[in-house]
Amino acid sequence: MGLFGKIISKITRTPNASSADWDELEAALLQSDIGPELSSKVIKSARSVKTESALEAITITLSSSLSDKSREIERAESGPSAILVVGINGTGKTTSTAKLAKLLTNYDEKVLLAAADTFRAAAVDQLRTWGERLDIDVVHGKESADPASVAFDAAQQGLGLGVDFLIVDTAGRMHTKADLMDQLGKVRRVVEKVMPVTEVLLVVDATTGQNGLIQAKVFAEAVSLTGIILTKTDGSAKGGIALAIESTLGVPVKWIGTGEGASDFAAFNPEAYIKALI
Ligand SMILES: Nc1nc2c(ncn2[C@@H]2O[C@H](COP(=O)(O)OP(=O)(O)OP(=O)(O)O)[C@@H](O)[C@H]2O)c(=O)[nH]1
Ligand SMILES: [Mg+2]
Questions:
Q1: What is the mean pLDDT of residues 17-39?
Q2: Among 35, 68, 36, 42, which Cα is nearest to 57's?
Q3: How many domains does the chain have?
Q4: Handedness of CA 219, 273, 266, 94 (dihedral sign)
Q5: What is the predicted pLDDT for the residue at 195?
Q6: Is 277 within 8 Å of 239 (Cβ atoms)?
Q7: Which of 25, 168, 170, 198 qualifies as a cystine partner to 74, CB 3.0-4.6 A?
Q8: Does the CB atom of residue 149 touch ligand 1 within 6 A?
């Protein structure tokens, strides 16, 4: 049974659910990280119908809060497309970059990776190790090079090589640091001189709960996000953050990370997700 399953089935079996029952449901909703706004919307819709229909009302409210944007990968009509992978520190950007590259190569797409996290030498090595493991080329620059210049070089090389996708791994940055957020805009602009940036993916760690929504809001303002990769869904996270982000910002969750391995990655399935929640 999902997170709210127990309390929902109690309510649907009781003709006159008590206010304590509704409070219990609201607490369960809040604990799932879907956020206070959506929680009260769900309670309102469930209370507006007969209790035996509460489950249906909740399912409808949750489903209609999902983004209606496509969850498919966006690509250029012809020629290569660039994907920027962004987010705060340690959310799983580099790992997700590798996982996405693997997924695309499984579909016979030609992929090139750019190590635009130039803050730490270890970051470049991490992506290069993935590249070797997956047999995918990685473009990198000198230590502490300008990330935009590495991304630009990679885009030019990608164009020359005739790749389908260039995936740019960027450094973790605090969403509160304006200069670092501006740097992302610059990375985007220089890549766009060479090829269209069709995806800007924000990597959100599911275990950070409601903070993920704040991150998404700030990143969405700085660089227009096209999708979310929700990582560490194999951990203790309740996962409601996916709904909180989708209902607030309309940015779709496109993939989820389910572990540390290259194949621990899946397309986000909204129906299965709602079912698991309730
Ligand atoms: N369990 C689990 N671990 C993950 C997942 N995705 C990433 N990780 C782990 O999270 C840690 C951080 O991953 P990175 O890919 O280095 O994160 P990052 O965002 O690139 O980090 P910085 O570049 O330092 O900002 C690593 O130990 C990964 O193995 C996931 O879906 N599930
Ligand atoms: Mg990284």
A1: 90
A2: 42
A3: 2
A4: positive
A5: 98
A6: yes
A7: 198
A8: no
Domain extent for 204: 81-277
Residue that finishes a domain, picked among 19, 35, 64: 64
- C-beta 261 within 6 A of ligand 1: no
Distance 49 CA to ligand 2 centre (A): 48
Q: Which of 39-53, 69-83, 128-142, 160-174 has the lowest mean pLDDT?
A: 39-53
What pLDDT was estimated at residue 135?
98
> Taking the CB of residue 256, how many other CB atoms lie within 10 A of it?
23
Residue 143 and residue 29: Cα distance in Å, rounded? 46
Q: How does DSSP classify residue 74?
A: P
How far, in Å, CA of 241 to CA of 220, rounded? 16
Helix (H) or strand (E) holding 37: helix 36-47
Q: Assess whether 185 and 270 both reside in one domain.
A: yes
144 shares its domain with 186 = yes
- Tell me the pLDDT band of 2, cut-offs 50, 70 and 90: low
Strand partners, 156: none
